[in-house]
Amino acid sequence: MVLAGGGSTRFGGVDKAMLVLDGATLLDRVLAATAGAATTIVVGPTRTTYREVDWTVEDPPSGGPVAGLAAGLQRGKAPVVVVVSCDLPWLTKDDVTLLTEGLGEYDGHGLRDTSGREQQLATAYRRTALAEAIRRVGDPRDKSVRRTLAGLDLTWTQPTRAGDDVDTWADLDD
């Protein structure tokens, strides 16, 4: 599941998913990293991408990432769901494999960014655990991702560039 529905407010309203870095949009870079998935659901407005994906939007639109997670979980059936945001331009197929292989008996296995911050939107989750966390929150609109997922048993990688997201123009220069 790729979350690509944010307003990109720190980019002055520019569609962050469609920003180009080294010849590919941020969204296409993440889609290349997740190309091995049985199904790829992108939560956000339909855009032109290099490969076929299943599109959906959160209800209500612009309801935030937890609403996006809830919408994305309505699609697909895989017992393991890799959740990534569209602003992870350094994510690779190997990183996605690391997430799924590191899951073990945990509810989720995620990336840490280079500063050591845990990235809940760069994590492989057990579908049942993720769905239960969202069910517990009730209306997912404008809910905190960290609070929603706080009760899950998560494990994390060592800090890695793959976990660095792009929140500002300066992040693209790193």
UniProtKB/TrEMBL annotation:
Q: Which UniProt keywords apply?
A: Transferase
Q: Which residues form the MobA-like NTP transferase domain?
A: 2-149
Name of this chain's protein: Molybdopterin-guanine dinucleotide biosynthesis protein A
Pfam families in the record: NTP_transf_3 (PF12804)
One Gene Ontology MF term: nucleotidyltransferase activity
Q: Which InterPro entries match?
A: MobA-like_NTP_Trfase, Nucleotide-diphossugar_trans
